[in-house]
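Contributing new records

If you add data, match the layout below exactly. Sequence lines come first and carry their own label; structure lines follow with theirs. Keep one chain per record. Anything else will be rejected by the validation script.
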Amino acid sequence: MDVYHIWCDLRPGTSDVEFSDAVHAYLGRLREEGRIAGHRLMRRKLGLGPRALGEFHIEIDVEDLAQLDRAFGLVSRREGPIESLHHAVNRHAARVEFALYRDFPDPGRARGSERF
């Protein structure tokens, strides 16, 4: 499993509940269409966490990079119903940071190739 991470803050005057609804509508649609395996939206609690990463954290699970590439391919067209769902998220987000991680060790990891 690969996990695409997104950290962000909200633009001033943005409703946290509207942002949450938009994230779940957008990523829920991608999940329903098999474009992603799942997602999760989290919010920093008690102010604990690096401020540089933002108050909100979204995790998007994908089976592999090919699935992520297909999802990006659809969204990057900027058309159809998925574009309005994507825009509904983006209009709330500020200071966005991204990262891509993988489960470890993953099935492709050869045993005996450990680095010390």
